[in-house]
Amino acid sequence: MEGLNIKNLITPVFNALREYSCSNPAIFHMPGHKLGKGIPVNFLGDLHLLDLTEIPAFDNLHDPTGIIKEAQQLAAEAYGSDHAFFLVNGSTCGIQAAIMTICKPGDKLIVARDCHKSVIGGMMLAGVRPVYVKPGFDRSFGITTAIEAAVIKKALLDNPEAAGVLITRPNYYGVCSDIKAISELVHSFNKVLIVDEAHGAHLKFSDRLPCSALEYDADICVQSAHKTLPAFTQGAYLHVKGSRVDIGMLKYYLRIIETSSPSYIIMAFLDIARAIMQDRGESLIGGLLEKLEAFEEKVYGETGYRILSREFGANGCIDRTRLVINAAKTGKTGFKVGKILEKKYNIHVEMSDLFNIVCITTAADTEDDFNRLYVALRGIERSLTEHPQFTDIYIREPEIPMQKLGLREVMQAGSVRIKLKEAEGRISKDIVTPYPPGIPVICPGEVVSRDVIRYIELIIEAGGVVNGVSDNLEIEVL
What we know:
By secondary structure, the protein is an alpha/beta fold. It has three domains: 47-274, 3-Layer(aba) Sandwich (Aspartate Aminotransferase, domain 2); 281-393, Aspartate Aminotransferase, domain 1, CATH 3.90.1150; 398-477, Molybdopterin biosynthesis moea protein, domain 2. The protein is built from 15 helices and 19 strands. Helix 6 packs parallel to helix 7 and helix 12 (334-345) crosses helix 13 (367-383). The longest helix is centred in the middle third of the chain and has 39 residues, at 264-302.
């Protein structure tokens, strides 16, 4: 529009985004293109020219016969799946459609407890009865780790009527469960295996990283391309392999859950991300790993920080591009260190927890980014040398609360908001989860325990954020 100056308009979201992007930040968070550094310049010009709609020449996402069909077939070939679907509502819609495809109302689904909250939402929509299984827990870093095949086997034996199994791999910290053992086990029971591989869209493209779940025949695999590839936010892939999944039913639920006005910008960059990684992924990830190795050598040689992949990386069980830095020896929480990085150094990490900061690194990260992070971490450590190390009380794992009411029943039930400290013994209406990483500590229909209340209080007192708990420390209960 001629004569219109954006500076004369009140645009808080636009202004904040522009201010951040122009401030020369070091970005260790998603999306994986890192302000476009991971995308060739010729793909970034005139993005508005890509914002089109489903006219005949541009195909139909929900009934593709032309260019979208071709692009999805190329994605399937690149990842080794039989069918690939572009998702423009993020991995969330793919996870939820997958659950609704394999489960009827009332069915059981065996679910690793470190699932993302989208899994809980999908089970609520499907009327599923969850059977939660616990992953391992590492007290040294204070994080959940892999889910053991033996744990899943016991759940399958105890619940032979379960429709399938859903695991998260890799988890937010890059830890990868033994997908070969789990896949063979689940299929020996003739069950469907769904893998939330939201953080692993890049694994396929380097022999130096753990394999993708598709390599060992996961039936459904959902990947957030925007997290680790040069794709735009909300761009994801859903893959199907084998014959255990009803493709027609899956398409049906995707049509219901996903928007009817898909973004062609998101789809175009799903196509671009696949093409870039298929053409140069091995060398791009190799270059990233070399920069990470140099960074880690300096950290271990000159500071007291610890790095998860250095200490938990045996047998290919961890994604080495996920940089988890333990800051316990600084005497400050990971929350605090993350805030200092942001406020003092203009370095922005993906997430922090009680002991760690978590950096999403991708091929778009530069040597300068890692140098800035190293200098900042060293400066923070030197400024906090007088602080004592944390006591063991922070390194704990809350027990899974008792499920008192079914997920579908909870959706229909009335509720009230009460103080968190008064909620012991009440049934939760909502998902209560530290976010990130988005792993629930209370799910709908579960009884709020004193143990969980104290865990939530510790996180909030330490500077963390817990979704489902209001600013005045209230939660929604039945």
